[in-house]
Amino acid sequence: MPTTLTTPALPLLDAHGISAEHDGTTALCDVSLAVVRGEIVALAGANGSGKSTLLGALAGTHRTSAGSVARAAATRVAYVVQRSSAPDGLPLTVLDAVTMGRWAGRPLWRPLGRADREIVRESIAALGLEGLERRPFHALSGGQRQRVLVAQGLAQRADVVLLDEPTAGLDDEAHELIARAIDAEARRGAGVVHATHDPEVMTRADRVVRLDRGRIVR
After folding, report:
1. Which of 88, 125, 133, 154 has most Cβ atoms within 10 angstroms of its Cβ?
2. What confidence tens digit (pLDDT) does each residue in 76-121 have?
3. Does a structural domain hold residue 5?
4. Are 132 and 112 in contact (CB under 8 A)?
5. What's the count of helices (H) and strands (E) in the chain, helices before strands?
């Protein structure tokens, strides 16, 4: 569980000397990374280099074996994983899935209001999902599901947005929609960290951090 920072001048997230394992193998070794407001950081590297593990460690979902991940006070983190499937019988629509983003960190007794519904609408529009709101999630194509997951992350209006290969395998239109959404999140003031193999996406980042066998390489 990330600790909490109390000094406003510090980064939103600050990983210092973290190491971690995945399936009994060292996945990260002495990695340090700071995430600041309004910056896009692209994580590059071959499959198995540690990108997904680092994102999980930053999100607090992957246990670290050494080092620390500190979080500025009241910092909210959204974590968008790679493509997800849903059981065919699960009555989850596109609108339901994106709306779930507004429930992140919200007490169950606090209902969604007009502002929440507007944020959901904006997130759906940003990912080109208008007209699909009532479509079952399980009936979507893989690319559409990925856009829904990104829209769900946007709907959280988090301070830090972490995305695991959000444009992988997408057509040019979906690729551009997600790239624009990432740009917009940074302009909003969020710190964005995403894993990618895409050179074009890397050029849009403020900083590219390359990983090789669990270590940051220069």
Report:
1. 154
2. 999 999 866 666 667 899 999 999 999 887 777 788 999 999 999 9
3. no
4. no
5. 6, 10
Q: How many domains does the chain have?
A: 1
Whole-model pTM: value is 0.91
Check which CATH number belongs to the domain holding 128 and give it.
3.40.50.300
CA dist 140 → 77, 145, 215 (Å): 26, 6, 37
Query: What is the amino acid identity at position 189?
Result: G
The residue segments making up the domain with residue 198 are: 13-217
- Could you tell me which of 16, 7, 102, 85 has the C-alpha nearest to residue 57? 16
| 4: in domain | no
Q: Is 6 contained in some domain?
A: no
Residues facing 40 on adjacent strands: 192
The pLDDT of 39-59, averaged and rounded, is 97
Tokens of 14: 């600050």
Say which residue the tokens 């239109």 belong to. 173
Contacts made by residues 44-47, CB under 8 angstroms, sequence distance 24+: 44/195, 44/196, 44/197, 44/202, 44/208, 44/209, 44/210, 44/211, 45/210, 45/211, 45/212, 46/212
Is 81 a domain residue? yes
What distance in Å separates the CA atoms of residue 71 and residue 13, rounded to the nearest whole number?
5
Instruction: Name residue 34's beta-bridge partners.
Output: 14
Beta strand extents in the chain (DSSP E only)? 3-5, 13-22, 25-35, 40-44, 66-72, 77-80, 160-164, 191-195, 207-212, 215-217
For position 107, what pLDDT does the model report? 75
Tens of pLDDT, residue by residue over 154-165, are: 999 999 999 999
